[in-house]
């Protein structure tokens, strides 16, 4: 194997600082939103006692799930020994860390008492999957950080296979944990399914890779370095498999529910009568996030078209948000069945389909998380050598397996 | 007996069907009333000393007779709001409610009934299982509480509660009562008026319901076979809500 | 390097300035209960230094074990030390005259208790805290309008 040469981006151009500045501005808006929400209390958001997790959670969970998936490329290289992915492993690990940071910051800043972070770190209820997630997230930073270190420092290079394998196992566990946050909720009709955990893993593969491809293409386009079709098409084919798998899991989830009579009401709500949620499901999740990208990935006419691939990845990200939105918000909008067989009404919205209108601060907070992730990536690319000097076809070597 | 009950609840029970059910329940009622008036029965209130820890010898619970609970009556709710200093901010979707009146209509028979719904004080409470910091906890004597000192406001317990019993404090709170501390950014729910219980009293809602002579709510020790609540449960039965979840709730209902 | 040193000087100067500002604030006295038969559970010096340990320890015993006659309880502190002044006004926790706030301001220690706990004895609760009367009126108006009959004091 020829030695791969890495480089840092120069980062002296106006465009580079404009990019950093733009991202910083979005982060500033997010901070102002947080101040607004925490100062007044959550009544200024779209959240309430019916929809207790809102837009910030959609962003946070999307980012956390994508973080684990962004590590894909590195894992395929070091765990499954596919050499073609090897040069991109550093970027893959960096992106994973950055996305997780962004997601966790959003999650934290939406707490009722974000000032009690220290409490969250010191009091643990080990029966809570949420508490386990705190450990899993912290561990992810440790394992992926160590992995990155073994990739970038020759003194510890020999430990790379172990570090890579640990990071791989850990990230599967992490996404299992994230999925289980919903899977363990026995009371809610739309959750309470063991399928949530594997579905979240496959979602992470798809969302994470889509973001990775976008970041990779942008990095090489803006630095003027060469990115060959061999690498890109390999990633594109992989993405196709992941998108199809997400569709498959979605289908299994709904078909299983449809089989059980007790779940007919919630399925009718999600798939037919749910108004905005049904629209988001069919148009956002299935069409934009699934069928159209799938068709475009395997369409012969646009095989080497980077613009199309960018569009595909963007659609998968939009579809991913739609999917998390329908899982999260629609799952809460459907009323709890406390009294089966009764029509229920009360001043506390029992038995009523709950509505949710996201407020601007919530959306800004979420966007701030994305901006933060990207800021970290853009900044890190300048400081350390993450990018291979070339990913041209001759370097990538299509025959290496 | 039936007359005095009906006048005290001043509600319109329109359909014959519900009247028939009420009448049917009234014939059983004297037994319950007898116990309720005889407050001296052991196990009806806590007798622990002030410096004594609560223990699993007791399991505090409530029994609610939906047949005696009139649609539109909110005496228990009003008492609870007063006791705990709950005020509306004109934002019903985010205003805190510890206890609420739920109107039920049987889909197959059309029978309407009404009941108060609050934290069911589960023995194996989902809110306790999911709470990352351990702020949600169930006391030895079965009362589920939130430790607001370590609640970080993540609201996972609200996602997990099968009874929608919890509220998140969406704004700054002023004029808290001395016995019911509550503040912005934490989650809260019915405490079964824990300070009253510890001092040998009964929850405000039960007190109000009894004082207004509705007698639809009984409070007492589920572990004490001689308590009014245990006797009533033994004689007339009582159901848990969502029994399929096997949470062993401390609040039971009759007439569902 | 000289720039760095200059920065250090400025910082030291600022620190001195701020400490001299603190020195001008009088050492807060603690309001003694008008009922002289009420004695604090510990001498004043001890309470000034260690009150938080007492109430923290017994907070958990009260909340988790239901022990309600703890001598060191926040409610007991408040019941003795918070009383109306000569004009009959109660100082809320935001006021310099509230005995907790006076000390905590002096010591620059943030105080968290009263975000949830009552800052005055029960008999003075429901009188409006200073500066909140307008908001309360608004709340009452809103409460009257709301269709939500369930929550209303």
Give your account of this protein's structure.
The complex is a heterotrimer of chains A (401), B (256) and C (153). With 401 residues, chain A is mainly alpha-helical. Chain A has one domain (14-43, 53-338, 362-384): Formate dehydrogenase/DMSO reductase fold. Chain A is built from 14 helices and three strands. Chain A has a two-stranded antiparallel sheet. The model of chain A has no long low-confidence stretch (mean pLDDT 92). With 256 residues, chain B is α+β, with helices and mostly antiparallel strands. Chain B has one domain (2-254): 2-Layer Sandwich (Alpha-Beta Plaits). In chain B, 27% of the residues lie in helices and 15% in strands. Chain B has nine helices and nine strands. Chain B has helices at 2-9, 16-26, 29-37, 75-84, 126-130, 156-160, 194-198, 204-211, 228-236; strands at 60-65, 100-106, 112-117, 136-138, 144-146, 167-168, 187-188, 217-221, 251-254. In chain B, a hairpin with a 5-residue loop joins strand 4 and strand 5 (144-146). Chain B is globular, with a radius of gyration of 18 Å. Mean pLDDT of chain B is 86; it is low at 1-39. By secondary structure, chain C is mostly helical. Chain C has a domain at 39-126. Chain C has helices at 2-24, 44-65, 74-81, 99-107, 133-145. The longest helix of chain C has 23 residues, at 2-24. The chains are: A mainly alpha (401), B alpha+beta (256), C mainly alpha (153). Chains in contact: A-B, A-C, B-C. Strand 2 (342-346) of chain A pairs antiparallel with strand 2 of chain B.
CATH-defined topology of chain B: Alpha-Beta Plaits
The level-1 CATH class of chain B: Alpha Beta
Give the termini separation of chain B. Answer: 22 Å
Largest interface, and how many residues on either side? A-B, 49 and 56 residues
What's the helix-strand series of chain B? HHHEHEEHEEHEEHHEHE
Q: Could you say how many structural domains of chain B there are in total?
A: 1
Q: How would you sum up the major sheet of chain C?
A: none
How many strand units of chain C?
0
Whole-number mean pLDDT of chain C: 75
What is the straight-line distance between the termini of chain C? 65 Å
- Proportion in β-strands of chain B: 5-15%
Category by helix and strand content of chain C: mainly alpha
Give the fraction of residues assigned to helices of chain C. 40-55%
Sheet-strand content of chain C, in percent, reads under 5%
Question: In percent, how helical is the residue content of chain B?
Answer: 25-40%
CATH architecture classification name of chain B: 2-Layer Sandwich
Put simply, the count of helices of chain C is 5
Looking at how many chains there are and whether they match, the oligomeric state comes to heterotrimer
